[in-house]
Amino acid sequence: MDIFEKCYADDYIKEMIRNGQYPYFLPLSENEGNVASYKGKKLIMCGSNNYLGLTTHPKVREAAIEAIRKYGTSCTGSRYLNGSIELHETLEHEIADFVGKKAALVFSTGMQVNLGTISALIGRGDYAVLDKDSHASIYDGVKLSYGKLERFSHNDMDHLERVLQSIPEDAGKMIIVDGLFSMEGDLAPLDLLVPIAKRYGARLMVDDAHGIGVTGGGHGTSAQFGLTDEVDLIMSTFSKSFASLGGFIAGDTDVVQYIKHHARSMIFSASIQPASTAAALAALRIMVAEPEWNAKLIHNGEKMRKGFRDLGFNIGNSVTPIIPILIGDNDKTFEMAQGLFENGVFVNSVISPATPPGRQLLRTSYMATHTEEQLDQVLDTFKVVGKKVGLI
Ligand code: PMP
């Protein structure tokens, strides 16, 4: 049996490429945040995680350039050995303050935060209890651990309780959920999760990759629920609102110290580069000093949810600027995405098998820097294409 056989076989990806419908890995020639170009065609960007629009903020650009001047282009090693710089620690202190935790630890990507943190904490005989819709990096973190994986239906607290009841009472347990779910823009019910975790002696970790900068006035989903002290661990990434690359875990000092010495994805990988560290720090300081970006983002999200509902689109349970357009069919999803693209709007197609059958959707997300005119144009385009495709 040749392990390459599967690579040569025909599959849905090859079929999409043949049909000219392949919407992934499109190399943009320009990206100014709210507007991007593909082969010279201008597109209103409604498919990025640049929620606050800070990738083009002059202070963020300048901070990254300045860090390269001071530290060069790379730290050329692990945080553990030669790869730590003062900027990492400054960022960790300011992040911990911002999310309301005692300590924080930065990693080179958010994926690595989840891989390293979860595999360090979930040991033999322990259980990781995940919302089924948890991000892939959370699942992979559990796979790398010696513990067991249990799942509950998305945001279904009765199911969570049944799962917890089935786990031996004295086993170590950690419930892990996304704070703001990245595909459908809904929130984990932390007000219900916190008392359940307490009742069953489980720790609670919230992946707020999409929440920080967006929910809780920017401080995240735990802050939105007023439960920062009750959530044991908060992780996030710098690749979204922080306009950079990297990620962090925040929690009690001893727990973060333990992760620092056991997270293999941090210890055995080079540290976050100076430019990315400085960009994340500059973005964080803008979040603190200029809360109007968050206010504008929330306003834009509200405007678009109302706009889509008024047009008759199904936007599920979104309560944030991440707004899914639920379609439930691969072909219609592509047809819609293609129509939008041709008319100058960039969105993300999420189809089966990436999503359960019946849950195919266009993932749209809005930014603080989108103008009213751009958003009105997006709604007008959705109206025209949605009618043509027969969605509304
Ligand atoms: N968690 C969630 C919920 C995410 O959406 C992502 C990124 N898509 C990550 C973790 C990983 O973050 P990064 O891009 O920094 O690797």
Descriptive terms for the model:
single chain; Aspartate Aminotransferase, domain 2; 42% helix; 392 residues; seven-stranded mixed beta sheet; 14 strands; Aspartate Aminotransferase, domain 1; binds 4'-deoxy-4'-aminopyridoxal-5'-phosphate; four-stranded mixed beta sheet; alpha/beta; 2 domains; 15 helices
Model description:
This protein is an alpha/beta fold. It folds into two domains: 5-55 and 291-389, Aspartate Aminotransferase, domain 1; 57-289, 3-Layer(aba) Sandwich (Aspartate Aminotransferase, domain 2). 42% of the residues lie in helices and 16% in strands. The strands form three sheets. A seven-stranded mixed beta sheet has the order 4-10-9-8-7-5-6, sandwiched between helices. The protein has a four-stranded mixed beta sheet with strand order 1-2-3-12. The chain has a three-stranded antiparallel beta sheet with strand order 11-14-13, covered by helices on one side. Strand 5 (127-131), helix 6 and strand 6 form a beta-alpha-beta unit. The protein is globular, with a radius of gyration of 21 Å. The mean pLDDT is 96.
Question: Which fold name is given in CATH as the topology of the largest domain?
Answer: Aspartate Aminotransferase, domain 2
Poorly predicted residue ranges: none
Known CATH architecture of the largest domain: 3-Layer(aba) Sandwich
Proportion in β-strands? 15-25%
The whole-angstrom Rg is 21 Å
Arithmetic mean of pLDDT: 96
Number of domains: 2
Level-1 CATH class name of the largest domain: Alpha Beta
**SSE string:** HHEEEHHEHEHEHEHEHEEHHHHEHEEEH
Keywords: Pyridoxal phosphate, Transferase
InterPro entries: Aminotrans_II_pyridoxalP_BS, Aminotransferase_I/II_large, AON_synthase_class-II, PyrdxlP-dep_Trfase, PyrdxlP-dep_Trfase_major, PyrdxlP-dep_Trfase_small
Protein name: 7-keto-8-aminopelargonate synthetase
GO molecular function: pyridoxal phosphate binding; transferase activity
